[in-house]
Amino acid sequence: MSDRQRDPKSRVRGDVRAGATTEAGVAGKAGATGGGRRGREGLPATRRWIAAVFLLPALLLLGALVVYPIVFSVYRSLFDASGDGFVGLGNYGEMFSDEAIRTALRNNVVWVVVAPTVSTALGLVFAVLTERIRWGTAFKLVVFMPMAISMLAAGIIFRLVYDQDPERGVANAVWVGVHDTFADPAPFPGAKPRPRADLRPSGGGAFTTRSAVRAGSAVDLPLVAVRQDDLRGARPAVAAVPRPGKVTGTVWLDFTRGGGGRPDVIDGGERALAGLTVEAVRDGRVVAAATTAADGTYALPAEQAGGARLRLPASNFAEAYGGVDWLGPALVTPAIIGSYVWMWAGFAMVLIAAGLAGVPRELLEAARVDGAGEWQVFRRITVPLLAPVLVVVLVTLMINVLKIFDLVYIIAPGSSIRSANVLALQLFQSSFGTDVDEGLGSAIAVFLLLLVMPVMYVNLRRIRKERRR
């Protein structure tokens, strides 16, 4: 038996020396074969050149489509509308002194605060609730479906949804339907007496007789300007008969088709106006009231109505409720934000649902076992664990909202476009609109870039932190 076999330590030391000799030989051989000069990261210089060649087309496109437009916009913003006169920061000063641009800036603040917050909140609610229902996948599909529609198509859809005419606009059709459920519409909107009739306007859309009525008399109240649609099913008018202890009369449409009728006289074929309210007014106080029958007649008790004047209140003639002016100056921005939320709540829901799938169920079950209610579990466990995902969704939507243009341009009518103005739309109007001023438009573009950069910086910092984890 040799000494090496008898001494294990010497055998290990020999193996180590042999390994070191082998590594040194391999390293020397690699240097001798000319593997190339290595870069800082240990890559051969040849590979660095190959990587640069492959990156060159992307860098050229990035420079042509991103870097050059930014540099040119900054340069162009320092000149006047013609591009010949240097004005320095004059365009930026004009940007903050122009009323239309200040309105656009205020609207952008509303957009950035409201739209991403509401979309993210709805996405969170949808993502949490759909986990508890069997048809949650189908619900997610329906909510996410608007993302497949372009902004142009969505704008056209909501321009019709918000149409003022209830027969075309879905929003007003629903609103008018709910309103008419609790408030009876006027029976004959727009109707009025003849110019020289005994009935006179008495303020607020009501009509009152000039002379007081006597007990046992019949007082006829003729009207004109009744729409044909309101006369469907109307019966022929009947002259009221005087009755003791009553004040009677007839309310009818004093108009004969084809002509030949006599004013203030019930002619054959003239239609009764049923359902109108007739009031007896004394000293500004209603002392009696009646409703006209199907033949247009009414009867008031003489004890209260005698010596009073007759009034047809404005509720008989009020125009039909037309709903809400969704696209008027007051509501146009919230209405457009509603269309944006309709589109992007599905996007938020999908991202939050993906994050929710990674939440450990053991934590939720442990909280429930410890006696926490569902609201406590949601507020103290689910939301904190989803905080990184919620920040991603919120920041993404904020960047998207700062560039909003097409929805506002399509949905807002010409009468409300100034009230709905945003910076991206003002950029388009200043650069390509009626009063073209490319210097001012470039200044708005640079300002928009400066607004987006802090949000992008926060997003990049968050991404770096996630990578370090």
TrEMBL record:
Family statement: Belongs to the binding-protein-dependent transport system permease family.
Protein name: Sugar ABC transporter permease
Occurrences of domain ABC transmembrane type-1 (ranges): 105-459
Subcellular localization: Cell membrane
Entry keyword annotation includes Disulfide bond: no
PANTHER family in alphabetical order: BLL4140 PROTEIN, DIACETYLCHITOBIOSE UPTAKE SYSTEM PERMEASE PROTEIN DASB
TM regions (residue ranges): 49-71, 109-129, 141-162, 341-360, 381-402, 440-460
Gene3D superfamilies, per database record: MetI-like
Chief location of this protein within or outside the cell: membrane
Source organism per UniProt: Streptomyces sirii
Bilayer topology annotation: Multi-pass membrane protein
